[in-house]
């Protein structure tokens, strides 16, 4: 009995230790974001509490001088187009692959399967040249096209769902005179809602967090997204950790809110996405 | 998106049909339409897939045999020169050793994820709270994580403050020497990715029917035996998948080291080096060769996994 109690205590202790490891780095940055530059200068240590816990001055600086507003706007534009495109493309591909038999179907499926194995980071050297040749370099279209065109995971998610929609529904509609496009638009697409929710969430978080693609394709200051704008804090705010911290918290906050609201979907989505 | 216009055209063309009782249309035309329909759906997806995945791969392989600098119209075929350079110049190949740190970190990460997935699959208070807390780092923006940990490892930053709170006064520059810097960076990657592995494992563990545990408990099995004989076999496919993800992730580590140290003090990874070769030193040919090597290694690892764990369907949700 006592052994069991000890084991339980140790288990909770390990959970608490893990929580501290997760929260401490974030918590300290949050504290730092509320400190004034004077407090930072007198070197009172990272763990001290800020003098004025309602000092949002650094957030104002981060927002104005760090161009966070235009970063959020750019990210929002990219999100809308990339997610919309991904949903359309993924669902169309899944519908075509699952509901039709056609020549070269095996080849098409193999092309999509194989593409899932190619890690995006490796091919950017050459992708860059292609994006550049389309004149998309330094425009918002570069990330939009890349996010839309290279997302195999969401095709998998849609494929799983289309399979679960009984084909008899299609048949019934076809007898009523609907053609393939009407069936896709009126029957398949509406029934894909859960899959769409999953793809929107997973894709949304991935795009919001991506650094590599906007960093490579949109060096212009005006085209900063969340990641690249925050990255640029490193220069002008060099040693101003209170401003950098405020910027980091500004970026983390939306993620936290979305996570708290949509927990269940997020777990499901990322599990599905990874295990495809 | 040429496809949408097609669809619209087709829809309006087909629109009036149901209104009139249609005679059976000419079978040949229908057949052609039926054959064409899937391709109309696949037009845009395939175009994007080929433009942004397969064309780059083909180009990359082609560039890797040239001395192209990425800008000038001139390029010369150099045979396998880039590849020999890559394998014979030690400073170019050295970066692979850095992946070793991340591989070791993956092992720690998987062990931690397994441990927490196992204990949280039992009845634990505040289970959802702990689950969320462990997973959340995975969702955070990489740049934000990099800054959080730059401050963490800074002189007089979070880590030093905590250590001095415990009575350990150190003026060790955590990102100052190659070994320490790489260990620190690998630690950040553990912090960031454990949550994903944990949630994957937890999903697998929870999909094991509860009666199995009850039966085992009746037979007098302890927690370790339950883990060994019920949980471990149940999560094998997910474990295999995680190992592959970790290996390819370790080989292609980029974001955190690039933002935190820019590849300084011996923390340059293979991808950082490739990006620098291509976009700073304009050595597109050499960079392409490097990327081809990395791609081949990752494909080989994946192929190996498919061979070792044949057709274990990973189905969690």
Short description:
Chain A is mainly α. In chain A, 77% of the residues lie in helices and 0% in strands.
Structural class of chain A: mainly alpha
User: Tally of extended strands of chain B?
Assistant: 0
- The proportion of residues forming helix of chain B, as a percent range, comes to over 70%
CATH architecture of chain B: Orthogonal Bundle
Task: Walk me through this protein's architecture.
The complex is a heterodimer of chains A (276) and B (317). Chain A is an all-alpha fold. Chain A has a single domain, classed as MetI-like fold. Helices cover 77% and strands 0% of the residues of chain A. Chain A is built from 14 helices and no strands. The longest helix of chain A is centred in the C-terminal third of the chain and has 35 residues, at 241-275. The two termini of chain A are 43 Å apart. The model of chain A has no long low-confidence stretch (mean pLDDT 88). With 317 residues, chain B is mainly α. Chain B has one domain (86-308): MetI-like fold, CATH 1.10.3720. Chain B is 72% helix and 0% strand. Chain B contains 15 helices and no strands. In chain B, helix 6 (127-139) crosses helix 9 and helix 14 (270-279) packs antiparallel against helix 15 (284-308). Chains A and B meet through helix 1, helix 4, helix 5, helix 6 and helix 7 of A and helix 1, helix 2, helix 5, helix 6 and helix 7 of B.
Topology:
The complex is a heterodimer of chains A (about 280) and B (about 325).
Chain A: H1 2-33, H2 37-41, H3 57-65, H4 68-99, H5 105-117, H6 120-133, H7 141-149, H8 152-164, H9 167-175, H10 180-191, H11 193-209, H12 212-217, H13 226-231, H14 241-275
Helix pairs in contact in A: 1-14, 3-14, 4-7, 4-8, 4-11, 8-11, 9-10, 11-14
Chain B: H1 2-14, H2 27-63, H3 81-88, H4 90-93, H5 95-121, H6 127-139, H7 142-153, H8 158-165, H9 178-206, H10 210-218, H11 223-234, H12 236-251, H13 255-260, H14 270-279, H15 284-308
């Amino acid at each position: 009995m006592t052994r069991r109690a000890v084991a339980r205590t140790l288990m909770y202790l390990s959970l608490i230790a893990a929580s501290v490891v997760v929260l401490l780095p974030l918590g300290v940055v949050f504290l730092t974001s509320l400190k004034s530059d004077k407090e930072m200068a007198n070197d009172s240590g990272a763990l001290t509490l800020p003098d004025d816990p309602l000092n949002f001055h650094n957030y104002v600086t981060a927002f104005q001088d760090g161009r966070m507003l235009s970063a959020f706007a750019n990210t929002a534009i990219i999100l809308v187009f990339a997610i919309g495109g991904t949903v359309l493309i993924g669902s169309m591909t899944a519908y075509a692959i699952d509901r039709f038999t056609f020549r070269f179907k095996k080849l098409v499926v193999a092309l999509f399967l194989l593409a899932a194995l190619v890690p995006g980071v490796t091919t950017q050297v050459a992708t860059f040249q292609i994006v550049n040749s389309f004149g998309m370099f330094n425009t918002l279209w570069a990330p939009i096209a890349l996010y839309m065109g290279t997302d195999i995971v969401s095709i998998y998610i849609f494929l799983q769902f289309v399979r679960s929609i009984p084909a008899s529904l299609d048949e019934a509609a076809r007898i009523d005179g609907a053609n393939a496009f009407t069936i896709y638009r009126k029957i398949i697409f509406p029934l894909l809602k859960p899959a769409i929710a999953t793809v929107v969430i997973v894709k949304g978080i991935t795009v919001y967090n991506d650094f590599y693609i906007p960093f490579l394709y949109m060096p212009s200051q005006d085209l900063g997204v969340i990641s690249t704008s925050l990255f640029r804090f490193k220069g002008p705010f060099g040693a101003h950790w209170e401003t950098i911290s405020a910027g980091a918290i500004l970026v983390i906050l939306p993620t936290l809110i979305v996570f708290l609201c949509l927990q269940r979907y997020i777990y499901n989505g990322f599990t599905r996405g990874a295990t495809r | 998106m040429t496809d949408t216009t097609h669809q619209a055209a087709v829809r309006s063309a087909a629109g009036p049909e149901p209104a009139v009782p249609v005679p059976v249309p000419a079978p040949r035309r229908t057949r052609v339409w039926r054959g064409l329909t899937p391709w109309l759906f696949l037009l845009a997806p395939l175009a994007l897939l080929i433009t942004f995945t397969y064309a780059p791969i083909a180009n990359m392989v082609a560039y890797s045999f040239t001395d192209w600098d990425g800008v000038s119209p001139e390029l010369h075929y150099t045979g396998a020169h880039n590849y020999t350079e890559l394998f014979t110049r030690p400073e170019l190949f050295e970066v692979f050793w850095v992946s070793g740190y991340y591989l070791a970190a993956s092992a720690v990460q998987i062990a931690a994820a397994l441990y927490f997935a196992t204990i949280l699959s039992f009845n634990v208070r505040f289970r959802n709270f702990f689950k969320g807390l462990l997973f959340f780092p995975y969702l955070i923006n990489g740049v934000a994580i990099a800054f959080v940990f730059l401050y963490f490892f800074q002189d007089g930053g979070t880590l030093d403050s905590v250590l001095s709170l415990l009575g350990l006064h150190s003026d060790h520059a955590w990102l100052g020497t190659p070994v320490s810097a790489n260990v620190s960076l690998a630690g950040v990657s553990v912090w960031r990715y454990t949550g994903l592995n944990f949630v994957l494992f937890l999903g697998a563990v929870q999909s094991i029917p509860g009666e199995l545990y009850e039966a085992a408990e009746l037979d007098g099995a302890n927690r370790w035996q339950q883990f060994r004989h019920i949980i471990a076999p149940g999560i094998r496919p997910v474990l295999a998948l995680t190992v592959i993800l970790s290996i390819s992730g370790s080989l292609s580590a980029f974001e955190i080291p690039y933002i935190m140290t820019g590849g300084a003090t011996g923390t340059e990874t293979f991808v950082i080096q490739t990006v620098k070769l291509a976009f700073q030193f304009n050595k597109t040919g050499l960079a392409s060769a490097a990327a081809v090597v990395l791609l081949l290694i990752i494909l080989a690892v994946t192929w190996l996994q498919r061979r070792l764990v044949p057709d274990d369907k990973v189905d969690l949700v």
